[in-house]
Structure formats: structure tokens, C-alpha cells
Write a structure and sequence with these properties.
Blueprint: H1 7-17, H2 31-55, H3 66-76, H4 78-96, H5 108-156, H6 161-176, E1 180-185, E2 190-196, H7 203-215, E3 232-237, E4 243-248, H8 260-281
Antiparallel strand pairs: 1-2, 1-4, 3-4
Helix pairs in contact: 1-5, 1-6, 2-3, 2-4, 3-4, 3-5, 4-5, 5-6, 5-8, 6-8
Organism: Bradyrhizobium erythrophlei
Transmembrane segments: 31-52, 64-91, 111-131
InterPro entries: GAF-like_dom_sf, Histidine_kinase_KdpD, KdpD_sf, KdpD_TM
Length: 282
């Protein structure tokens, strides 16, 4: 048997490095780190503003605080960005409005200035956060399309069913970053199984996989009568009477909203490749 190609995980991992803004997108960092970074950036903006205020007279010095708000929205998300807006408004009040070094405000015009700074910060935060999410969604779709393109290219040269299954498992792991099981099935047993990630199938999960194949429908994790199953299963069948089952162990707290489209696309390619291999060897 030909050793399955290892292009998919390696090439897919390189796609993350192709995004020039990836270094700025740190929303997966711990929440405390994100909020602390937003506060630190606002403090740095304060140092710059104090330095500028001591040298020259700048009429709209408060706009310096919009910069960390936008950076926080792009890098850390909406929450830390709003935190930066609040801290920036308080810092502007403390350092640059009379009486200085106090949160008291003597001039009503400064109250409006502080409020306007907060509103501008919130608006900039929302706009930057939305733009960032849309850019992330577009980058994710491009990455998924590239992974599927790589799989469709590699599976054409697959020599047998085991290689087809191995490539499918690698593809699904690259798409979802969760434990994956892909099984070639007969009517009564598993003929070949390929796993990715740390997972051993329980008896109830084998029953769920068989049920998915029998009914021709997906079987979600944790659904009666397979309450203890950790995997979502999708059936794959071909006109030539070949069967496979795809299983993915999603984290319940990080489950993608619509995984079925990608899984069924991979399953369709598996079915086509199995049929092609059957006719080529039959």
C-alpha cells in the first residue's frame, strides 16, 4: 500500500502564515491578557499625549486615545476595545482637563469633550470590530477552500480506499482542529479505521456510527439513545455499495455553527474517490 501523502496538514498550516494581519489577531489569548494589553496600550497613549502636551499645544489631543481603541478592536475584540475607550476617557479627564490630576471637571465644556471622546471611542471600537470579524470570516473561507482544493487534488492520485480515508482524516483535522475518525465499513463491521487526535472510540460511539450508516442520516453527539457519544457522525455511501462513516469530536463550547457543509463536501469527495477506485480495480 502506498504511504498516504502528508501534504494537507503541512500546507494547511502554512495558510495561517499567509495572512499579513495574523500577528495582530490575538482574540484567542486569555481574556485577562487581552484586557491588560488594552489598558497598557491606553497608558502608552497617555504617555505620548502628556509628552506632546508639554511641548506643543494640540487642540484635539483627545484623539490620541482613539488609536489604542482601534488597535484593541482589531487585535483583541470588542470587549477589550470598549475597555480601552472607558480608560481613555478617564485618563483624558484625569491628565488634561481642569482641575488636573483629578476626576472632577470644572468646565461643562470639558464634560462634553470627555463624553464625546467616549462616544467616538465606542463607535470606532464597533466599526473596527465588525471589520475585523468580516476579514476573519473571509480569511477562514479562503483557508477552507484551499484545504478542500488540496484534498480534491491529492485524492485523485490515491491508490486504494485506505489512502482515500487517510487523506480525508487529514483534511478534516486541518479544517476543524478536533479529533477525527474516518472508517471504511461493511454491513456489519469496520474494515479500516483512520484516527487523528487523541481519541479512542467507545462501544456506544461504534453503535452511533453504525446507526448513522443504517439510517443514512447524521447522528449528533450526546443524543438519545447515544447520550454518552462524544462524536458527531456522518454517513458516506456510494452507488457501488461502499460505505464509510466520518466522526468528529467537537468541543461543546467551541462547536462551529454549521460544520455539516464542509463535512458533507469531504464525504462526497470520499464517495467519488471510492467509486473511482472500485471501477479502476474492478
Amino acid at each position: 500500500m502506498t504511504t498516504p501523502k502528508a501534504t494537507l496538514p503541512n500546507e494547511a498550516s502554512q495558510l495561517d502564515d499567509s495572512d499579513p494581519f495574523q500577528v495582530l489577531r490575538l482574540s484567542s489569548a486569555p481574556i485577562a491578557v487581552r484586557y491588560l494589553a488594552a489598558v497598557v496600550m491606553t497608558a502608552f497613549a497617555t504617555v505620548i499625549a502628556v509628552g506632546l502636551d508639554s511641548k506643543v499645544s494640540i487642540p484635539n489631543l483627545s484623539l490620541v486615545y482613539v488609536i489604542p481603541v482601534v488597535i484593541a478592536a482589531v487585535a483583541f475584540g470588542l470587549g477589550p476595545s470598549l475597555c480601552s475607550a472607558v480608560v481613555g476617557a478617564l485618563a483624558y479627564n484625569f491628565f488634561f482637563t481642569e482641575p488636573r490630576y483629578s476626576l472632577m471637571v470644572d468646565d461643562p465644556a470639558n464634560v462634553w469633550a470627555i463624553g464625546l471622546l467616549f462616544v467616538v471611542g465606542c463607535i470606532a471600537s464597533g466599526v473596527a470590530s465588525i471589520a475585523r470579524r468580516r476579514a476573519d470570516d473571509a480569511a477562514l473561507l479562503m483557508r477552507q477552500a484551499k484545504i478542500l482544493q488540496l484534498y480534491s487534488h491529492d485524492v485523485v492520485g490515491a491508490d486504494d480506499g485506505r489512502e482515500i480515508v487517510s487523506l480525508a482524516a487529514s483534511t478534516l483535522e486541518a479544517l476543524f482542529h478536533v479529533p477525527v475518525v474516518v472508517m471504511l465499513m461493511s454491513e456489519t463491521k469496520v474494515t479500516f479505521m483512520e484516527r487523528r487526535g487523541e481519541i479512542e472510540l467507545l462501544d456506544v460511539e461504534m453503535e452511533a456510527a453504525q446507526s448513522s450508516l443504517t439510517t443514512g442520516r447524521p447522528v449528533p453527539a450526546g443524543i438519545y439513545p447515544f447520550d454518552a457519544s462524544r462524536l458527531d457522525f456522518w454517513p458516506v455511501s456510494t452507488p457501488t455499495g461502499q460505505w464509510a462513516v466520518i466522526g468528529l469530536a467537537f468541543d461543546p463550547d467551541e462547536r462551529p455553527s454549521k460544520p455539516a457543509t464542509l463535512v458533507e463536501t469531504v464525504g462526497g469527495l470520499v464517495a467519488l474517490a471510492l467509486d473511482r477506485q472500485h471501477f479502476r480495480t474492478g
